[in-house]
UniProtKB/TrEMBL annotation:
Biased composition (Basic and acidic residues): 22-34
Region (Disordered): 22-54
Highest classification ranks of the organism: Bacteria, Pseudomonadati, Pseudomonadota, Gammaproteobacteria, Pseudomonadales
Protein name: Cell morphology protein
Any single biological process term in GO: negative regulation of cell division
Organism: Pseudomonas endophytica
CC terms in the record's Gene Ontology section: cytoplasmic side of plasma membrane; cytosol
Pfam families on file: CBP_BcsQ
Keyword vocabulary terms for this entry: ATP-binding, Nucleotide-binding
Gene Ontology terms, MF aspect: ATP binding; ATP hydrolysis activity
InterPro entries linked: Cellulose_synthase_operon_BcsQ, P-loop_NTPase, ParA/MinD_ATPase
Length: 445
C-alpha cells in the first residue's frame, strides 16, 4: 500500500473521487519504513563473566493478515487478538556452566575490552588526578602548642636541670666532707677583700708582699683575681702558668712560683681559657676547702706569710680566702659608694662558717685625699663606724701609679712618699700581730 491508494480509499469512503484532490507541496519527508537500529553488542570484561540472556518469544498477532486494500472501517470491526505468552523458564546455573563448557570446547573466546574503552578509562584517571591537583584536599593541621604549654615544658626542663645540678653539688659536698678539712696551715695568711672595685686592693697587696717580713720566713703572693694584675705590681712577666693552667696541671703550686720585687714569691692567676676558668670555678664551688688543700701541699712554715688578692665582690675566691685567712683586710675609700658596702661586707663576714673563728677582721682606708673637706668628713664617719677595726689610712699618692707604669718597685723609690710610709706602718702592725700570735702558740705548746 502506498500513499496514493490511501488517498483514494479515503475519498471513496466519503462518496467522492480522488480526481478533485490537489496536493500541496510539504516539507515533511514521509519515509516508507524506518530501518531498525543495529543491536549493540554487550561488552564483557575478562574478570566479569557475561550475563546469560533469555530470549523472549516474539509477540505474534493473529494469523489473519491485513491486506493493503482493506478499509479503515473493516479494521475497526476486526479485533486483533494476541496470544498469551508463557513465561520463559528460569535458566539454572548448571545450564550456564554447561553453555560455558560448550563454548570453551568450540574455542569461542570471550570478547575482550576494546582499546578505545581502556583509553577512555586512562583519560578519566588522568582527569581525576588533575582535578585533585587543582583542588587539593586540605589536610587537618597538627594541633599547635599554646604559649602556656611551652612555658610549662620549659619550666619542667629547668626544674630537672636544677635538680640534677643540686644533686651533683650535694654529692660533691658529701665527698668533700668525707675527706675533711686539712690541718690548719702554719703560715700566716692575709686576705685582701673588697666589694667595690677601684679601691686599690691589688696595689696594697703588692705593697705588703714587698714590705712584710717575719724572721726566717718567706712571703708568698697568691692571685685569685681573674684580672691577673698582681704580677704587674711585683715585676713578673706576663704569660707564665698560673693556678688554673691545665697545660701545667702536672706542676705543683711550688713549681709555678715566680720571683718578684723584694724576694716576694708570686703564684699568678694566669691567662686562662674559658674552659680552664670554668673548671677552676667549679673546683672552688664544689670543695669549700679547696684552697686549704692546695696550701697544705706547699708545706709552709710558721715564719711564712701568704698575701691573697681576691676578686671584687662575693665570689668563690672570696669564700676560699675567708676559709683559710687568719687576717682579713677590707679595703675601702672615703666616699659614699664604699660606705654603702660596709653592711653587706659585715653580713658576709658574720655568716656561719664564712671564716675561721680565730681570724681577725680589719679595715684600711686607701686613696685618702686630705685636701678635700668631704673626704675628711667621710673619714671621720668611717672612724666612728669602724672603731678599732680601722687600722690604717693610706693617702693618695701618684708615685705609686708612676712606679707601676715604669715597672719599678714603689717601695724602693729614694724620694719621700707619704703612701710608702703608710704602707710600711701597716706592714709593721701586721708583723707585730703575727709575732704575738706565734709566741702565744709556742707558749701553748
Amino acid at each position: 500500500m502506498n500513499r496514493t491508494d490511501d488517498i483514494s480509499n479515503l475519498f471513496s469512503r466519503f462518496g467522492a473521487s480522488a480526481d478533485s484532490y490537489h496536493e500541496f507541496e510539504s516539507q515533511v519527508d514521509y519515509k516508507e519504513k524506518q530501518p531498525a537500529p543495529p543491536a549493540e553488542t554487550p561488552v564483557s570484561h575478562p574478570e566479569i563473566p557475561p550475563k546469560s540472556t533469555v530470549e523472549m518469544a516474539p509477540v505474534v498477532a493473529d494469523d489473519e493478515a491485513v491486506e493493503v486494500g482493506q478499509s479503515v472501517s473493516q479494521l475497526e470491526h476486526e479485533p486483533v487478538s494476541l496470544e498469551r505468552l508463557d513465561p520463559a523458564p528460569a535458566v539454572e546455573p548448571s545450564s550456564v556452566s554447561a553453555a560455558s563448557g560448550v563454548r570453551d570446547s568450540l574455542g569461542i573466546q570471550q570478547a575482550s575490552v576494546p582499546a578505545a574503552i581502556v583509553e577512555v578509562e586512562d583519560k578519566a584517571v588522568i582527569a581525576d588526578a588533575s582535578l585533585k591537583a587543582a583542588h587539593p584536599i586540605e589536610e587537618q593541621p597538627w594541633p599547635v602548642a599554646t604559649p602556656s604549654q611551652l612555658r610549662n615544658l620549659l619550666a619542667e626542663v629547668v626544674q630537672a636541670r636544677q635538680a640534677h645540678a643540686q644533686a651533683l653539688a650535694d654529692e660533691s659536698l658529701h665527698h668533700a666532707a668525707a675527706r675533711g678539712r686539712p690541718v690548719t696551715c702554719k703560715a700566716h695568711i692575709v686576705a685582701m677583700v673588697s666589694l667595690k672595685g677601684g679601691v686599690g686592693k691589688t696595689t696594697l697587696g703588692a705593697g705588703l708582699a714587698s714590705s712584710l717580713r717575719l724572721e726566717k720566713g718567706r712571703v708568698f703572693a697568691l692571685d685569685l683575681d681573674p684580672q691577673n694584675a698582681l704580677h704587674y705590681h711585683l715585676g713578673v712577666e706576663q704569660g707564665v702558668p698560673g693556678i688554673g693552667s691545665l697545660s701545667s696541671e702536672l706542676l705543683t703550686w711550688s713549681d709555678r712560683l715566680q720571683h718578684g720585687f723584694d724576694d716576694a714569691l708570686l703564684l699568678p692567676y694566669g691567662v686562662l681559657s674559658e674552659d680552664e676558668r670554668h673548671a677552676l670555678a667549679v673546683e672552688m664551688s664544689e670543695d669549700p676547702h679547696w684552697l686549704a688543700r692546695q696550701l697544705d701541699r706547699m708545706h709552709l712554715g710558721e715564719g711564712d706569710v701568704v698575701i691573697i688578692d681576691t676578686a671584687t665582690g662575693a665570689t668563690p675566691s672570696l669564700d676560699q680566702a675567708l676559709d683559710v685567712a687568719d687576717e682579713v683586710i677590707v679595703v675601702t675609700t672615703a666616699d659614699a659608694a664604699s660606705f654603702n658596702t660596709l653592711d653587706i661586707m659585715e653580713r658576709l663576714l658574720a655568716a656561719s662558717h664564712a671564716r675561721a673563728a680565730y681570724s681577725n677582721c680589719s679595715y684600711v682606708v686607701n686613696q685618702f685625699d686630705a685636701s678635700r673637706e668631704f673626704s675628711r668628713d667621710m673619714l671621720e664617719v668611717l672612724k666612728r663606724r669602724l672603731g678599732e677595726q680601722l687600722i690604717a689610712v693610706v693617702v693618695k699618692d701618684n708615685a705609686l701609679g708612676e712606679a707601676l707604669a715604669y715597672g719599678r718597685n714603689p717601695l724602693s723609690v729614694p724620694e719621700s712618699s707619704a703612701a710608702r710610709e703608710d704602707l710600711v706602718q701597716l706592714a709593721e702592725k701586721l708583723q707585730a700581730r703575727f709575732e704575738t700570735s706565734r709566741a702565744q702558740g709556742v707558749e701553748a705548746q
